[in-house]
Amino acid sequence: MHDVLLKITDLHVSYGKKAILRGASYDVRKGECLTLLGANGSGKSTSLNAICGFVNPVSGSIMLNGTDLAGEEPHAIFKHGVAQVSQGRDLFPDLSVEDNLRLGAMQRGKGGATQSLAAIYERFPRLAERRRQATRTLSGGEQQMVAIGRALMSNPLILLLDEPSGGLSPQFCAEIASIMDQLKSEGVTMLMVEQNLNLAFRAADRFIVLRDGQVVDGGDVAAMAGDHDAIVRNIYL
Ligand SMILES: Nc1ncnc2c1ncn2[C@@H]1O[C@H](COP(=O)(O)OP(=O)(O)OP(=O)(O)O)[C@@H](O)[C@H]1O
């Protein structure tokens, strides 16, 4: 038996009249990394946005440790322990690295446990060196580290990662991959959307494939023994 942390059941999300998620159901188990795969427009980012409360589901449930998050406000969902990392887009560019990191802890508020800055700097020495720099002066990969660090400051129950490798050089992709390895070894639960299949399969324990807003495939990454072709065909053909 696996401990389920997040249970999505029959989730429907629409933008106006356009149905994007059409009855998606899946679980994320405690301590695992689950990757959402699927062609462009299949509803991967919408899934993360629904979990975070940036978009309200039409119906269905999003149970986190027994609490239904569906329809809750984003700040309330964050306080329940869901933190999203979205490609550095939501950082404050003129604030220092340190101030951006501190904001992650403040947002969770008094009730939530937080990680110390020292712990984040130990994990990301590159950020310690740049702690006083305006965040906009960092490279894309370093900004992605700030975004991950900021999410970790709130000590989340689950980390949602939207394209962690997006737009990064191969060198930074490798760094992000090793950060994810480290998070996994620490038992951090992650739900990730990732187009870079090398990273997706390296970091993930399990995957699911979305097509037209429904789950059409899924399984254990280890069981595929490196044979990813069938999955790729299922996603893109
Ligand atoms: N705010 C919005 N308003 C209207 N339509 C939207 C909105 N956000 C996304 N969509 C549409 O919903 C569909 C699914 O988008 P989503 O971003 O979830 O796809 P995705 O699977 O993450 O794709 P990609 O791999 O291209 O990022 C797309 O057709 C997109 O144009």
TrEMBL record:
The keyword ATP-binding applies. The keyword Zinc-finger does not apply. This is ABC transporter ATP-binding protein. SMART domains: AAA (SM00382). Belongs to the ABC transporter superfamily. Residues 6-237 form the ABC transporter domain. InterPro entries: AAA+_ATPase, ABC_transporter-like_ATP-bd, ABC_transporter-like_CS, BCAA_Transport_ATP-bd_LivF, P-loop_NTPase. GO terms for molecular function: ATP binding. Keywords: Amino-acid transport, ATP-binding, Nucleotide-binding, Transport. It comes from Roseibium salinum.
